[in-house]
Amino acid sequence: MSKIKADDYLTWGAIAKVLHNILYTYPEAPLIDNFKQEELHMSWPQLVDSEYEKQGRTYLKRYLTNWESTEAQLIELKVDYGQLFFGPSDPKAAPWGSVYTGEEQSLNGDSTQKLMAFYKAHNIEFTLERNEPIDHIGLILLTLEYLFNQLAATPEDKNTLGTCTLLLQQHLLPWADRCLELAEQHADSEFYKGIAILSRVYLAHVSQQLGIITQQTKLFR
């Protein structure tokens, strides 16, 4: 594992926050308006300078350049989010870990219970906005934001680093790339296609920088 600076943790935490806001809930016009105003495709941190990462930025740039905050555009984007991550039919890129790690492909499976036990053991608590399995990728990203911000303040905190490493190694990385791969494949909008790519690059980069060997887990979709 390479030496990681406080600024690296701040960057990772900021990315986790943005991805939480995008992946956890349906899009709203003010959020996309802000992304366009802030030129998210330009301000997004360059992590690996790969062609794949550049492709993700290009998708995001094209979408935000053409975004005019019309009702029709928002409805179209909401429909895309729904078919990928919510329903009403089976989401094409289901955002819950147990859907991938459990043979039944159901919510609140064994891996969800293990994550609950992990959070309890490490005194991690948060209030849910809705009744939601806690292994939603957006919620785990929210937890990562918190942990990375803690590490930015105290980079030598081995306990927090250990918690962060285990969360990634055992509870997110085993299935998240498959979720994001499906999102990339099935997204109708360049917005979610670009975000899926940048999310995959982000998690792979963090994993590499932290020297994480992902726990081998059989996936069922």
From TrEMBL:
- Any one Pfam family here would be Nitrate_red_del
Signal peptide annotation? none
Q: Which superkingdom, per the lineage?
A: Bacteria
Keywords from the UniProt entry:
Chaperone
Does the keyword Endoplasmic reticulum feature in the UniProt annotation?
Answer: no
PANTHER family hit by this protein: CHAPERONE PROTEIN YCDY, TAT PROOFREADING CHAPERONE DMSD-RELATED
Tell me what this protein is called. Cytoplasmic chaperone TorD family protein
What organism is listed for this UniProt entry? Answer: Shewanella sp. (strain MR-7)
